[in-house]
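Example record for the data management plan.
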Amino acid sequence: MYKKKIPVRTECGLHLFKEFLSGKWKLMLLFYISEGIIRPGALQKKIAADRRVMTKQLDELLQDGFITKCSYETKIPKVEYQLTPLGKSLLPLIMSLEEWGESNRTVLEAALTGK
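Corresponding structural encoding:
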């Protein structure tokens, strides 16, 4: 496993948040998993992420205790994810961010297009 060269800063909650939840898709993955137990293929369709990147971020969320993974040994192997209590504790924050994005949609979309 990759060993970080720069020590992890823990003197501030924002540093801890960044350490565990920085990643292009992590908050989106938590948001969609919160809607119910969900399979990797469905997650990939919802966020349109590269499968390898999404799998890596799911593995990190799993390792850090934000989600659980349930594997079923059926004829066609099946995997589902769900939030742990730690993951559920992030939902109010994620929902606030989603509401902020919606309420500022016009300004943010203009910034994206350079208008």
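Summary line stored alongside the record: The CA atoms of residues 61 and 102 lie 26 Å apart.
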